Here is the input.
Amino acid sequence: MKGNHDMFNRPLFACALAIAPALLWAQSSERIRINQVGYAIDQIKIAISLDKGDSASLIDSATSQVVWKEALGKGMPWSDAKDTGYVIDFGTFRTPGTYRLQVGKEISRPVHITATPFLELSRASIKAFWYNRSSYALASPWAGSWVRAAGHPDTAVRVHASAATTLRPENTIISSPGGWYDAGDYGKYIVNSGISTWTLLHLYESTPAFFDTLSLNVPSHSGPTSDLLDEILWNLRWMLSMQDPADGGVYHKLTTAQFSAFVMPNKDVATRYVVQKSTAATLDLAAVSAYAARLFKDIPELASLSDSCRTAALSAWNWARANPNSIYDQSTMNKHFMPLIGTGDYGDNDVSDEFQWAAAELFLTTQADSFAVAGSLTKPPSALPWPSWQDVSVLAWLDLLSNKNLLSGSLSGLGTKLDNSLLTTAKSLRNDRSSNGYRIPMGGFWWGSNSVFANNGLLLWKAWQISNDTSYRNASLETLDYLLGRNATGYCFVTGFGSRSPKHIHHRPSAADGVVAPDPGFLVGGPNSGQEDSCVGYPSKLGPKSYLDDQDCYSVNEVAINWNAPLAYLAGVWNAANTISGPAGIHSAAASKLSTQLQLTTQTGTVVASMAGRSLSQAQLLSLDGRILSRVEGPSASLSLHATASGLFVVRVRAMDGTVAAQRIVLP
Ligand SMILES: [Ca+2]
Ligand SMILES: [Ca+2]
Here is the structure.
């Protein structure tokens, strides 16, 4: 049901109300705000006390002993929340365990310190997409408590009058199965799929070998792709099916005419339509499929999909160039065509950024300079904008600066300029931490605010990657802290995580399944001063506190794929980083489903791979960025790989019968 509201032209709520009594909102044990999921052993650890006190103590939950104690930082008033925050910086404490922080008489929720605090969050934030699959049954045991029947097969979808063409007149039946439900409703929207799929592709590309071996505990897929790639493909293949093969144009969305009631997917059986081809949707498909074509071309099992994606991208681009003003405007459309359509519109009057994004991806994939010119890519902005479904230009710039080796022709030398543009934005976000009581890189408190914070965490992470400046890396972690509880509401905003998380999300399956706990791993929209849902009972009108855990409060408590995607990115890159820098020793992690069949042993300087009952034909030792460091071929029962370095690697083997398996290994 998420509409046009999580945009960036909404002003911050400027509060001129009288100061509320300080104790109005206060509750015992809620005066210390922490990252409720966990802190990494060797990273910064920040909590916020809302009370001034002489000192903060860290108390071991098992022994009740004080294990760390220091003076509180200076108070930082924050008028937006009418709070003053005092920083508790316990980064020097590095012993894993479960603790509580104490300031005066206030005692925090449990504080967890571990080597890989975001492992389960990383898995769950990706698996949330699996839980939101259309045309798909969630089966036991993979779905846990949230088993459900398949809904919306979408093999017989009608062409809406707004999308009729000579070859596909009104009510033509087409097939467009798969994909993800967009949000709390059962619609499938190309525009929002575009940025969401890009973000997950970008996550995969950040550390491919790592994500090749990250298990999501989902059913086996065909072929040797990883669980993350498999999830991406589930939506990408749907997106491709939304393109009219006759002309390359892409339908804006696939939905019922009106939103369904809060029923399970298989109970929503109203007719589904593909609606009007739009320039924005067509360019978003061009961008995503051009990116996928580039990423998949060196994966043998995906080579033909790569070719299809490239063809789809080019024909979409050509359609958009010929139809640059096919703007999706639902109210105008409804004046001309029946049935009336009332689902989310994802309207966007400015498609210049969509042209830039598609052009950038096509340039990188084809190396044809004409795309650089057509997309006006030679003049980047002095500061990169924040990502959103409606403004995707930053996706173009991020992909260009991530592929400096491909910047040729009129884009030669652009990479350095783009680095500076990114650092300008990241510097501002990083410095925000000194201007608010919770020490957070600031987003804004409008519809979908949590996605703004998460996306800014992504920008900060990228800034760290290009600069090696750890202040950006720390700021990206503090963005995760914000989402996981160090905020003015005291909620960890991800279902099923932390000690206080949303229970009543605006999400049809969670509402209708009869299971008390909501589907896990979903990020809610978050604090929003607009309160467009007109719910009664908000604790505050102040933006940072304007949140209510109520199913009816769709403007703060809905979920959406474009909100979960940047959470998955942040949790994922941090999970990979924490795993990579984890304790030394040989502790290979069971990874992909097939890896249970793979045995690894190490001897000095070598790794021996074998599979019980199978002869191997090939073994590879890969770095985490997917480079092959060592490779052996042959039909021997076990293959020895020469390992020259220490750290985290991936071993990938292929058996004579075609079975492929991969496993992570940490070499001392
Ligand atoms: Ca736009
Ligand atoms: Ca439920």
The domain at 593-667 is CATH 2.60.40.10 (Immunoglobulin-like). The two ends are 51 Å apart (CA to CA). The mean pLDDT is 91. The first strand starts at residue 32 and ends at 33.
